[in-house]
Amino acid sequence: MTVMGHSGLRRVAALLAGAMALLAVMPQAHAAIDYPSAFACDVAKFNWYCDEEPEKKPEAPAKPPASKPKPKQPDQPTALQRLEALQQRLKEARAKAVLEPTPEHVAEYIRLQNEVGQMAGVFSDVWRRVIWQNPDLNYELKRPVNNAAIDTYNKERFKKEMQALDAIKREWGIFFFFRSDCPFCHRMAPTLRFLSDTYGLTIFPISLDGRGIPDYPNPQRDNGLAERLSVTSVPMLVLGNPKTKQLIPLGSGVISAQEVIERIYILTSTRPGDLY
Questions:
Q1: Model-level pTM?
Q2: For 220, which DSSP code?
Q3: Domain 148-269 belongs to what topology?
Q4: Does residue 173 contact residue 204 with C-beta atoms inside 8 Å?
Q5: How far apart are CA 8 and CA 82, in angstroms?
Q6: For residue range 81-127, what is the model confidence (pLDDT) as tens digits?
Q7: ∠ CA(154), CA(156), CA(160), 5° rounding?
Q8: Domain spans of the chain, in order of start
């Protein structure tokens, strides 16, 4: 073994001192660096710095799969469209059966006609059941159709007409516009005479030509009232009140006594729609 001299010993001592100083400061230096070195990981690695695993970023939550749009359902035909389609089928089948009257075409039309007839029968049956069970929908309560109810209705109606006639005959009368050469005026005159004799109605005969007729030989001459009422056809009946000057046309032509009474009742005692 070679014995070191004093100078060699001093050099070794200096190196050891430097190494010790380095070891003393290494913990502090390691604490100051912000990346790992061989002192903090496997020192057997080739270089001083570790091959760290890259920092894993938190995975974003998986998005739910987009729902597929539901296929659009075809619009259902309305009741009106279905009815129109059925009517069109019936028309087409009838036209084909007429233009091409083969047994098959005629049979198809008959089958379709029977189908429509069955539907109409069911509708009619349900209709009457609803009427029976819902008095508020039963129009027959207002205008009956069976004979017994019609008789009762007519009697009650006639009673009301007589009441209306009795109320107005005290102040109202009927202006009878006529011409002496009018055959229909001659036919209407006896009816008015009957109403006057039977029910006490006052009749005011007015001749447009100044001449009378057998039932009213001495009529009044027209003083402009016919023009005021636009009387162009005779016979013409107008219900009038001489005191109030109120006039209500009843109609023209030949009218039966009962119809005259009915019109007086309707025009003086009811409102439009009351009897319907």
A1: 0.58
A2: E
A3: Glutaredoxin (3.40.30)
A4: yes
A5: 119
A6: 999 999 999 999 999 999 999 999 999 999 999 999 999 999 999 99
A7: 110
A8: 101-137, 148-269
